[in-house]
Amino acid sequence: MTGQQGFSYWVSSGGVATYDWDIYPNSPGNVMVEAAINRVNDVSPGDGVFGEIGVVHIHSASGSEDPNYAPVMFRKGTTHIRIEGLVDNSFINVRVMLNYW
After folding, report:
1. What is the value of pTM for the model shown?
2. Which of 13, 15, 38, 44 has its CA 20 to 30 A from that of 27?
3. Taking the chain (101 residues) in consecutive chunks of 10 residues, what is each chunk's mean pLDDT?
């Protein structure tokens, strides 16, 4: 591994909501992206809790891909990554790590 880059985001809604983040690696190249939820909290007690995070778009030397909430991906020649968070009556805190190889 030649380096790392980390991000922290949050998503909150009393209903259903999605949020997208576009990430452009500092060093476009061989990148492993990992997205994980650190914390999930109920916004309105009694209504249930749901949160999801993952890669929904990645552009690399292989072309463009639109995976469905992939938690981890490795691609060569990565230049653009889109992460999406989905919540339903919840607050989530997420972390995204880029590992450069």
Report:
1. 0.89
2. 38
3. 94 90 91 95 80 96 94 96 94 95 90
CATH number of the domain encompassing residue 19: 2.60.120
Q: 62: how many CB neighbours lie within 10 A of its CB? A: 11
Identify the sign of the CA torsion 54, 4, 80, 67: negative
Which domain covers residue 69, as residue numbers?
A: 3-100
User: What's the structural domain count of the chain?
Assistant: 1
**Residue showing tokens 């060569």:** 76
Q: For residues 10 and 96, is the Cβ–Cβ distance under 8 A?
A: no
66-77 b/e with 16+ CB inside 10 Å = b?
eeeebeebebee
Q: Tell me if residue 24 falls in helix, strand or coil.
A: coil
The full DSSP string for 57-73 is: EEEETTEEE--SSBSEE
